[in-house]
Amino acid sequence: MNLFGVMEVSGSALKAERIRAEVVAANMANAETTRTRTPEGGPYRRQHVVFSSSAAEPNSFAGQLISQADPKMGGVEVSAVVKDPAGTLRRFDPAHPDADKDGYVSYPDINPLTEMVDLMGATRAYGLNSSAIQATKGMINSSLDILKS
Amino acid sequence: MQISTPISDALERYLDLSSLELKLTAQNMANIDTPGYRAQGFDFAGEMERSLGELAAGQTKNGAARKPFSPNAARVGLVDGLIERPDGNNVSMDREGLNMAEAQLQFRAGIELLKRESTRVMDAVHVDK
Q1: How far is residue A26's CA from residue A45's CA, in Å, rounded to a whole number?
Q2: How high does pLDDT run on average in chain A?
Q3: A131/B37 touch (CB, cutoff 8 Å), yes or no
Q4: What is the interface pTM, i.e. ipTM, of the complex?
Q5: Which of A5, A48, B22, B66 satisfies CB 3.0 to 4.6 Å to B103 for a cystine?
Q6: Which chain B residues contact residue A136 at CB under 8 A?
Q7: How far apart are CA B73 and CA A80, in angstroms?
Q8: CA of B27, closest CA in chain A: separation in Å?
Q9: B56 to chain A nearest CA, in Å?
């Protein structure tokens, strides 16, 4: 175990929280999207991230070294981005090009309040982990100081 | 010939345990939103005492043949007494923040003591100048 491994763990959390914030941003941006290019078409579906605890990144050199030294080392990763199964909001607007035969348009069921709260959570967790990185940096710096005296 | 002093050996263990503490705190912080994750930790005072005991036993037996301390040997377990959220995660941001500050200060203190110790050894090396 070394201190650089701690940075790897906090770094994985920064990455995961950033993806979460991106997904929230995509949800808010598409709050009124009625057309998507997915095979099933229809309105945009709200998306969620699923976090899972993971081993350190195996494809990086540092990650390899860490998992050799200590297999219990675990960061976090986004294991999936899933679509919300909730239905759509139907609004009466016969003039809309995507209106069905009754004149209703299906809009994504996105609540800006929920999204903002999720975004706030992501920002806070990002800040928390970046302060963990600052702490680690301070410790690495001070251990480099041993040799200077 | 042995250049490390008993104090620097003890400080080595202390720094190892402090960085293990930091590692576990970083791990808990990274998984603050992972459903079902349980906070991990260990008893710092207990582990320090145990490794000092190991150190003392090694020294009385044979000063040269001391085996290096592996932080994996520390008994890491789940932290109990934390409030669990509905998603099964029980990481407390306050506890982790406090632990991180503590680990940082412990590490700094250990480094300062180690620096003092190495200055002492260097003084002995340069005593003829």
Answers
A1: 10
A2: 85
A3: no
A4: 0.74
A5: B22
A6: 22, 26
A7: 34
A8: 6
A9: 24
